[in-house]
Fold this protein.
Amino acid sequence: QQQVKQSPQSLIVQKGGIPIINCAYENTAFDYFPWYQQFPGKGPALLIAIRPDVSEKKEGRFTISFNKSAKQFSLHIMDSQPGDSATYFCAASTVYNNDMRFGAGTRLTVKP
Amino acid sequence: DAGVIQSPRHEVTEMGQEVTLRCKPISGHNSLFWYRQTMMRGLELLIYFNNNVPIDDSGMPEDRFSAKMPNASFSTLKIQPSEPRDSAVYFCASTLMGANYGYTFGSGTRLTVV
């Protein structure tokens, strides 16, 4: 089922740093690439998403970079804060099947 | 909207017992998904429904697992008989098919089989 590969597994940065999480996908039919944020005891929550017709999308401190030819995309968190400490999942799906596949997750810790 | 509602939040059961997990999707959403989350395997898609019809159940581990969606506002995931290796957090999610809105997840059911 692992059609989306995510790295690193865990990441520790200092407050103000810029953590980067990377994902690669295999299925060229995927056309929707969201990132989810999960806090302990909660379900994943949609953070930001991108379609393959653009190479970058920014929402607040969160940026997705997308490389269609390489079949890779990444999440950057600018000016990271301790409150950003969570597990982040990349995902991919097709608009017709909506069968979203998730990466393995990255546990981010932002130290004060 | 109250979001996706799952019950129970926690379930502890003995091996061999039947377990039923419940989910109420967001009103108006027409796709519903059941995921299982473990440390070892991450988030696994078990089954999903479009307009109450099961579309892909290839992720269901074995015949002990079954899921139903009798109407647009309710779904169940049943495990019978349960085994310790079924211990995990089970999430239900819903979305509007074809809209690329992303999924809205419930808070999950933490299942422990002893």
Residues 61 and 108 of chain A are 15 Å apart (CA to CA). DSSP finds no helices and eleven strands in chain A. The mean pLDDT of chain A is 93. Chain A touches chain B through 24 residues (CB under 8 Å).
